[in-house]
């Protein structure tokens, strides 16, 4: 017999006939058994049961109790209490080299895709990349929330279902959207294949990042990285684009296999989430969809204006190369905020330090993006690119980058609702602007489209950055 802290005696698990099924069930679910043994109230056990997918129906039909709370009472009285101390919270660390590595992981695939297209001598339509990117971005955000919720419950038994589910849902959605785009915008089989391949790669890579397996993802990217750099002459040994294209395929296969390695670990359990987790996943699905749509609009207008002449690549790489800086500053801001929370004398001091930290992070990211963008303008000038569209593209990419950074900063502290309001407003205003241009001018030129995108995202970035300076000072965020 073991005494509960409040003085109530709790016996070890009883083996009477009425509890045999309950005993067997708990013995085959060590995580749930541990959670129940450390509970200090039957209501805590009831909450734990719900997070493990046990509701009133199972309590009645499987165990014969009147409801979930009666089952919780029985477990509370039957399981020996085990006292556990509070787990120490991991100290937040400043951003560092790992964040820059993550940024490189995000940026490198932009080098792989042109090599694969050139090596296989295919001619996909412009919409292939936006379709794969938008679908994978949206679904990837949603799955990242769900994976995070399971990790918060120390539930790793659903990894197999999550990995195969993410790949199947993303590939099916990409295939459906690509076929629809092919039917409405024109295209070929290569366009559909590219859209699906991009979606599958991003889904698998996103899973590895959600499982904090950055180094494994980096290792899987080695063949495509070496092949692409060799094909463009940046390594001592030069190979053909065809060989490099097959090395890109090898990386795609490796990433997918690595993301599904849980299939061999017997981690097969249908995942369960509460209503809050489901709502959060839908919100981040909408957030990712908005990010993908804005990026896709830019790609579409830039392609119409530039085609395959390389200007779009010149202005896109500054944003890609600063993704690591974005990760670095996001983590650094969180660390500074945690330090301010624990050391500030009062809320006024805390608010002042948070605003300083926010401006420092935003300024650092903006400075890095500006420096690389100016470098891109210089490269474009040396290559005799048309400077007017180049400057316009650069400004548009810059406003998109700043908007993404501020939105990610706000979502990281729980203000996803505010971000969605701004995203919806931006998309509505941009859509109305494009419709107006269509009605007045009889068509939407690439210059008009990029200008509309620049103005709307620039306005959103300015307004959101100004509001974030005050929103982030709420101590309840941390």
Terminal CA distance reads 42 Å
Number of domains: 3
Give the percentage of residues in beta strands. Answer: under 5%
Mean pLDDT: 82
Q: What is the string of helix and strand elements?
A: EEHHHHHHHHHHHHHHHHHHHH
| Principal-axes shape call | globular
Secondary-structure-derived class: mainly alpha
Low-confidence parts: 1-18
How many helices? The count is: 20
In what order do the strands lie side by side in the largest sheet? Answer: 1-2
Radius of gyration: 26 Å
Main β sheet profile: 2 strands, antiparallel
Helical percent range? over 70%
Beta-strand segment tally: 2
Can you describe this structure?
The chain is mainly alpha-helical and 478 residues long. It has 3 domains: 2-78, no CATH class; 98-273, no CATH class; 306-478, no CATH class. Helices cover 74% and strands 1% of the residues. It has 20 helices and 2 strands. A two-stranded antiparallel ribbon has the order 1-2. A hairpin with a 5-residue loop joins β1 (2-3) and β2 (9-10). α6 (97-107) packs antiparallel against α16 (323-343) and α12 packs antiparallel against α13. The longest helix has 36 residues, at 347-382. The two termini are 42 Å apart. Residues 1-18 have low confidence and may be disordered.
Secondary-structure topology with pairs:
Blueprint: E1 2-3, E2 9-10, H1 20-27, H2 30-37, H3 42-51, H4 56-61, H5 68-78, H6 97-107, H7 109-119, H8 128-152, H9 159-185, H10 189-210, H11 214-220, H12 222-231, H13 241-259, H14 275-306, H15 311-321, H16 323-343, H17 347-382, H18 387-412, H19 416-441, H20 446-471
Antiparallel strand pairs: 1-2
Helix pairs in contact: 3-5, 6-16, 7-13, 8-9, 8-10, 8-14, 9-10, 10-13, 12-13, 14-18, 14-19, 14-20, 15-17, 15-18, 16-17, 17-18, 18-19, 18-20, 19-20
């Amino acid at each position: 017999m073991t005494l509960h802290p409040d003085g109530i005696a709790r016996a070890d698990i009883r083996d009477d006939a009425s509890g045999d099924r309950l005993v067997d069930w708990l013995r085959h679910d060590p995580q749930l058994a541990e959670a129940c043994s450390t509970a200090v109230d039957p209501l805590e056990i009831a909450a734990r049961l719900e997070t493990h997918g046990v509701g009133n129906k199972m309590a009645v039909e499987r165990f014969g109790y009147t409801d979930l709370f009666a089952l919780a009472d029985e477990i509370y009285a039957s399981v020996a209490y085990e006292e556990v101390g509070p787990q120490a919270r991991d100290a937040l660390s400043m951003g560092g080299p790992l964040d820059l590595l993550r940024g490189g992981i995000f940026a490198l695939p932009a080098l792989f895709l042109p090599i694969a297209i050139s090596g296989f001598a295919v001619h996909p339509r412009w919409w292939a990349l936006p379709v794969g990117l938008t679908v994978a971005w949206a679904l990837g955000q949603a799955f990242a929330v769900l994976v995070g919720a399971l990790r918060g419950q120390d539930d790793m038994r659903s990894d197999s279902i999550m990995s195969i589910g993410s790949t199947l849902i993303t590939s099916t959605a990409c295939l459906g959207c690509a076929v629809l785009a092919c039917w409405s915008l024109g295209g070929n089989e290569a366009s559909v294949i590219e859209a699906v391949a991009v979606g599958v790669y991003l889904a698998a890579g996103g899973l590895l990042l959600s499982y904090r397996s950055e180094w494994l993802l980096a290792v899987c990217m080695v063949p495509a990285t070496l092949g692409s750099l060799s094909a463009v002459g940046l390594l001592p040994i030069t190979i053909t684009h065809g060989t490099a294209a097959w090395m890109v395929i090898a990386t795609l296969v490796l990433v997918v296999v690595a993301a599904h390695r849980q299939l061999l670990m017997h981690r097969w359990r249908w995942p369960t989430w509460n209503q809050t987790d489901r709502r959060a996943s839908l919100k981040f699905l909408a957030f990712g969809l908005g990010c993908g749509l804005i990026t896709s609009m830019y790609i579409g207008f830039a392609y119409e204006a530039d085609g395959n002449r390389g200007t779009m690549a010149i202005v896109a790489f500054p944003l890609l190369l600063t993704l690591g800086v974005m990760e670095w500053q996001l983590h650094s801001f969180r660390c500074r905020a945690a330090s301010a929370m624990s050391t500030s004398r009062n809320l006024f001091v805390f608010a002042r330090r948070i605003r300083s930290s926010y401006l420092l992070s935003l300024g650092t990211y903006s400075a890095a993006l500006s420096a690389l963008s100016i470098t891109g303008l210089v490269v474009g000038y040396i290559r005799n690119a048309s400077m007017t569209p180049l400057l316009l593209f650069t400004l548009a990419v810059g406003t998109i980058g700043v908007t993404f950074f501020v939105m990610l900063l706000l979502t990281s502290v729980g203000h996803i609702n505010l971000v969605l309001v701004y995203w919806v407003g931006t998309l509505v205003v941009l859509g109305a602007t494009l419709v107006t241009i269509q009605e007045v001018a009889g068509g939407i030129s690439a210059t008009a489209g990029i200008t509309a995108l620049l103005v709307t995202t620039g306005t959103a970035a300015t307004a959101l950055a100004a509001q974030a300076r005050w929103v982030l000072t709420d101590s309840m965020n941390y």
